[in-house]
Amino acid sequence: MVISLYMVFRSDAVQTILVRLAADYLSRELKTEIRIKGFNISIKNGLMIEDIRVLDLQKEVVFSAHKFGIRPGFLKFKTRQLNISKVFIEKGNVQLLTHRGDSTLNFQFIIDYFASKDTGKKTDTTAAVPWHISISSVNLTDTRFHMQDENEPLADAGMDYTNLDVSGINLEITDIGFEGDSIFAKIKHLAARERSGIVLHNLSGDFSVGPRFLKAHGLKIL
Fold first, then answer.
1. End-to-end Cα separation, the chain, in angstroms
2. Which of 56, 93, 115, 162 has the smallest C-beta neighbourhood within 10 Å, fewest atoms?
């Protein structure tokens, strides 16, 4: 009986139906639209979502992708290590918009919905041993990133930093690690085109980023 139930829930069709029901529920709760065409999750292959689409309250896309996946690496409780083997997005579209007359980004309502409520319980302030989190690789294929503040006027020429629209992003990052408030990663390839006409054919190098610094070693730009 248990094995039969496990096999049922391992079915792509059953998982997709359940996730679509969850997406419909969240759509009603958030008063927006969340759609997922295909879904599969397994211990070996991790999470795979096909044709996901999330809209904001103005019916603009917050996030969409033909394929979005996360593959697990390893989890070691004794040494508090968590590794994600791969994160990938194919034909993605990410839009961070501040709509006209608003002062917050268009996904703030999602954060607010999932924000934890004060239950009145005292918070445990005992310092915990931090987890060591790493990501082996991140791959973006033919993806777009659009960030715009609609309250700001459009620039007449050149790159408009209040309306960045980068398309055709092809990105491969490996060896991503976190140390305190700093991030370390190796960009093996980055190509993209900005709406102003600036084209990046290939960027690579070892990068480290912190609140007050950005360092690059072995930087190559074409």
1. 59
2. 115
